[in-house]
Specification:
The complex is a heterodimer of chains A (about 260) and B (about 240).
Chain A (H helix, E strand, L loop, with lengths): L3 H26 L3 H6 L4 H10 L4 H22 L5 H18 L2 H9 L7 H30 L1 H6 L4 H41 L4 H26 L3 H18 L3
Helix pairs in contact in A: 1-7, 1-9, 1-10, 3-4, 3-5, 4-9, 6-9, 7-9, 9-10, 9-11, 10-11
Chain B lengths: L5 E12 L2 E12 L3 E5 L6 H8 L6 E6 L5 E4 L13 H6 L5 H10 L11 H7 L8 H13 L5 E5 L7 H18 L2 E5 L3 H7 L2 E6 L1 E6 L1 H4 L2 H8 L15
Parallel strand pairs in B: 3-7, 3-8, 5-6, 6-7
Antiparallel strand pairs in B: 1-2, 1-4, 8-9
Helix pairs in contact in B: 3-5, 5-6
Chain lengths: ~260, ~240
């Protein structure tokens, strides 16, 4: 049965999937799949600290993600190749710290998300921030794309590659922080990468690729929450599994 | 010696990465309509010189471009894998959404057929993934992309691999044709002395510092080449390898 709560859950699930899928398409272009996959782990200690100080966990998560993407951005500036090992270690350690310091009653929710008591305010905030993300991306996606092909070519046409990359990573931090309510810190990274990987399988051009990435994310959010509700399961993992099913299907049609 | 039509003056140019001197003491002029070749062994700083001229790396000394010039650049290495979901059309649209102009520029780099179905080939090409193009096609697309917004100066960093020799000859014919059609000044990094003799009116030889500068037939004498490349230079070629 469709309830008001379910509608709110679906709205947030679709928005988060849409934003994560769309941004994920650029994470993959930037060869940051690993980063995309584990970045959300950093949010856990942020959530824990927010809970300890009794502030909104979203701000704690965003703060931690902000610091993480700042670190990635600095690494990116220093070296040509992102130091994946360092990033991997850092993310794994922050997850360990997060598990230790998150109060036990909230741990499961922080790890796997919880949209059972989602409110209208959450939908409004998610809508506004997702729209803001798309606005920023509309401004920077050309420069972002060109810098993927050649940083020098991008710079030679007057694009500030470093600033573009920073803005993009901030958008990733924002969308991941928003998505934590749906999938939690363990699985949000998957929602960034899997729909985009699926879209990449069947896209020849960027337009189709980015649109499909967003669409696959949104469908994962919608389908995952509906199935989870129908069978009384935890929505986060089902949302991610839904994106996995889409990925497997697209493999059959790989270009 | 500054001339009315001098569009670039470089004096005592130096580039350091950390404490490593990559270039030092370079000085030369470029006049409007020149074809200046830059030669040197691998790792001699040729690409770094381009990056400095484009203002992409910090440098010491003077790089003085005439005011209001539009520079365009064809880099040596591009990071395009076959899986990259970016069509040729979208690659051009990053710079200009004017499809007529894109088709016309594709035509002028020889990527369009002259048959009765005018522009059919170009239209087909535009829908391809950038990563699906052959080495020669990609090089032409990059040149087309570079001249799309009508630059005054083209900086061309020749790829060390990916194009066969036969193809290379045509690329240079094409560059010469574009230079004449579009009134371009060209700076080109080349690995092939035959190309330099044939196409450039000036050459600078660098190996971190300036070894020679002037008209190719005058300055590329055996002693300069030996100094530049070592003993093997009499063969007038060197290994095409990785170059920074």
């Amino acid at each position: 049965m469709i309830t008001d709560t379910l509608l709110l859950q679906l709205a947030v699930g679709i928005l988060v999937g849409l934003g994560a899928g769309y941004l994920g398409s650029f994470m993959i272009l930037k060869r940051m799949s690993l980063v995309g996959d584990v970045i959300s782990h950093v949010a856990l200690p942020g959530i824990a600290i927010a809970l300890l100080f009794e502030i909104n966990p979203f701000f704690g998560a965003f703060g931690a993600l902000f610091l993480a993407v700042l670190g990635i951005w600095l690494l990116e500036r220093k070296t040509e190749i992102p130091s994946e090992t360092l990033v991997g270690i850092f993310f794994a350690l922050s997850l360990a710290v997060g598990i230790l310091i998150t109060p036990e009653p909230e741990l499961l929710e922080a790890l796997f998300g919880d949209i059972a008591e989602i409110a209208m305010a959450d939908v409004v905030i998610t809508s506004i921030l997702t729209a803001a993300m798309f606005f920023v991306m509309a401004k920077i996606y050309r420069g972002l794309t060109l810098s993927v092909i050649s940083k020098e070519l991008a710079q030679s046409t007057g694009i500030n590659v470093s600033r573009t990359s920073f803005l993009f990573l901030m958008m990733v931090a924002l969308v991941v922080a928003l998505g934590l309510q749906v999938t939690g810190t363990f699985l949000m990274g998957a929602l960034v990468i899997v729909p985009a990987a699926a879209a990449k399988n069947i896209s020849v051009n960027l337009r189709r690729y980015t649109i499909l990435s967003g669409l696959f994310g949104a469908v994962s959010g919608l389908g995952g929450i509906l199935i989870a509700t129908r069978f009384g399961l935890h929505p986060g993992p089902i949302v991610v599994l839904a994106s996995g099913v889409i990925f497997l299907v697209t493999l059959l049609f790989k270009k | 010696m500054a001339h009315n039509s001098t569009i670039l003056t470089v004096e005592n140019l130096g580039v350091k990465f950390d404490e490593n001197e990559v270039l030092k003491g370079l000085g030369f002029f470029v006049q409007k309509g020149d074809v200046l070749a830059i030669i040197g062994p691998n790792g001699s700083g040729k690409s770094v010189l381009f990056r400095a001229l484009l203002g992409l790396v910090p440098h010491s000394g003077k790089i003085d471009w005439a005011k209001g010039l539009k520079l365009s650049y064809v880099p040596q290495r591009m990071n395009i894998d076959r899986e990259l979901p970016l069509s040729v059309e979208e690659f051009f649209y990053i710079k200009s959404k004017n499809k007529g102009k894109v088709l016309s520029v594709l035509n002028s780099v020889g990527l369009s057929d002259d048959g009765h179905e005018q522009g059919h080939l170009a239209r087909h090409l535009l829908k391809q993934r950038l990563g699906w193009l052959s080495g020669g096609q990609l090089q032409r697309v990059l040149i087309a992309w570079a001249v799309l917004d009508d630059p005054d100066v083209l900086l061309f960093d020749e790829p060390t691999s990916g194009i066969d020799i036969g193809g290379e000859e045509t690329i240079y014919n094409l560059l010469r044709k574009l230079k004449e059609e579009r009134n371009l000044t060209m700076l080109l990094i080349s690995h092939d002395l035959n190309i330099v003799y044939k196409y450039a009116n000036n050459v600078i030889c660098i190996n971190k510092e300036m070894i020679c500068y002037g008209v190719p037939s005058e300055v590329l004498d055996p002693s300069a080449l030996t100094k530049l490349y070592g003993g093997e230079a009499s063969f007038y070629k060197h290994e095409h390898g990785h170059d920074h």
